[in-house]
Write a structure and sequence with these properties.
By secondary structure, the chain is of the alpha/beta class. It is 37% helix and 13% strand. It has 13 helices and 13 strands. The protein has helices at 9-21, 38-50, 61-71, 89-96, 114-120, 140-150, 201-210, 238-249, 251-269, 298-310, 331-334, 359-366, 379-396, and strands at residues 54-58, 79-82, 100-103, 125-128, 153-157, 165-166, 169-170, 177-181, 194-198, 276-277, 290-294, 316-317, 368-372. The strands form three sheets. Strands 1-9-8-5-4-2-3 form a seven-stranded mixed β-sheet, with helices on both faces. Strands 10-11-13-12 form a four-stranded antiparallel β-sheet. It is globular, with a radius of gyration of 21 Å. The two termini are 28 Å apart. Bound molecules: pyridoxal-5'-phosphate (PLP). Residues 60-62, 86-87, 89-90, 131, 157, 159-160, 181, 183, 194 line the site of pyridoxal-5'-phosphate (PLP).
């Protein structure tokens, strides 16, 4: 699953090129850097790979979300519709922007249910942020259509879905902006890193300025650059970008391995009555970082999630109980527990997430078991895992 599994000489060579010049910053030092621009190269490569006009590389996926919200003009008091199954960074970035996360139900895609999104729209709604979870897509065409109809900004959290497509179009390129993460456990890694992509020249201008204290990046003297907007520092270092350059070249290999291993698991599990796979709106565009399936009820899903590791099938996740990814365990959000005062706490009608009921999402997540797909597994090992999995599931069903 993660790019670090294929970490090798290629990454070392790229990093070495940066170390040779000693220029660790992505901007400036033109003479000393011997024309080595790792962040810039990565951005050009990724934009080309995704078929998008602009890409800006930042320090993390969380930073990418912050930059995207800011560059798209989402801020104080705006409501942003998000799914309750994601990584905590999604709502952290929205809260930090001063905006309000509004949770809508997911369906058996494990992503936002378009009709639930529509029902959650109020006069304060400004944006919808679908999250393409576990490597596969939301019903992105329907969400895009809904946003267009209702005049809402679509920002995709594609942090877990690099390389995924929907009918041939890259995930992350359907809205005004898309966000990716290259943290150590993502499909490819920079060590830490993230990216914002957009086809909109204005959003790109704002994004790259905001991520570097509002610098306009015009001219070749950083000290003389102007600051058209207020910003912050979300820069990535050249060392991290260098790792990413080598990793990005491996993306197609990574996807190909994952897809072939997933196919082995799917073939085996298809023969088990009572197992239903996650709905993937376009199977061909799945990155296959995970295989997720549903059992008939929560009780049997829990049993399976416990029995699989006991039978030697590691890397299984029961997200319903997970602290990072499902709203049930986000007590810090429910209490707005923050050392500083969050903008949302100043709202007279602030949401009470403790009272939020998401029965449809609970029903989906309660029955779901995910298995990660490792790059390191040989075909034979994957086949063995598949057989063990079938055996365990037959014992439960
Ligand atoms: C990983 C992740 C992020 C945050 O990325 P970092 O690089 O770890 O900051 C945001 N959203 C989702 C869905 C993620 O999986």
């Amino acid at each position: 699953m993660p790019g670090f599994e294929l970490f090798g000489q290629e990454e070392r060579d790229e990093v070495e090129e940066v170390l040779e010049t000693g220029v660790l910053m992505r901007y400036g030092f033109d003479a000393a850097r011997k024309d080595r621009w790792k962040a810039r190269s990565f951005e050009q490569m990724l934009a080309k790979r995704l078929g998008v006009a602009h890409c800006h590389l930042v320090g993390s996926g969380t930073a990418a979300l912050d930059v995207a919200l800011n560059a798209c003009g989402i801020g104080a008091g705006d409501e942003v519709i998000v799914p309750p199954f994601t990584f905590v960074a999604t709502f952290e970035a929205i809260l930090k922007a001063g905006a309000v996360p509004v949770f809508a139900e997911i369906d058996d895609t494990l992503c936002l249910d378009p009709s639930a999104v529509e029902a959650a729209i109020t006069e304060k709604t400004r944006a919808v942020m679908p999250v393409h979870m576990c490597g596969a897509m939301a019903r992105i065409d329907q969400l895009q259509h809904l946003c267009q109809q209702r005049g809402l900004t679509l920002i995709e959290d594609a942090c877990q879905a690099l390389g995924g497509t929907f009918h041939g179009k890259a995930l992350g390129t359907f809205g005004l902006a898309g966000c990716f993460s290259f943290d150590p456990v993502k499909t490819i890694t920079c060590g830490e890193g993230g990216a914002v992509v957009t086809d909109d020249a204005r959003v790109y201008e704002l994004a790259q300025a905001y991520a570097d204290h509002g610098h306009d990046h015009i001219g070749n003297d950083r000290g003389l650059e102007k600051h058209p907007i207020l910003g912050t520092n979300h820069r990535i270092s050249e060392l991290n970008a260098a790792v990413g350059v080598a990793q990005l070249r491996k993306l197609d290999t990574i996807l190909q391995i994952q897809r072939s291993r997933k196919q082995i698991l799917v073939s085996a599990l298809s023969a088990v009555d009572g197992v239903r796979f996650r709905t993937i709106p376009d199977e061909a565009g799945d990155t296959a970082t995970f295989l997720t399936f549903f059992l008939p009820d929560e009780e049997r899903a829990r049993k399976a999630a416990a029995a699989l590791p006991e039978a030697g099938v590691d890397g299984c996740f029961y997200w319903f109980d997970n602290n990072w990814h499902y709203i049930r365990s986000w007590d810090h959000l429910k209490r707005f527990s923050s050392p500083a005062k969050l903008p949302v706490q100043l709202l007279s009608e602030r949401p009470d997430y403790r009272r939020l009921a998401l029965p449809q999402s609970d029903a989906v997540m309660g029955r779901a078991v995910s298995m990660l797909i490792k790059l390191g597994w040989s075909e034979t090992e994957t086949q063995e895992r598949a057989e063990k999995t079938v055996e365990v599931l037959r014992g439960i069903l």
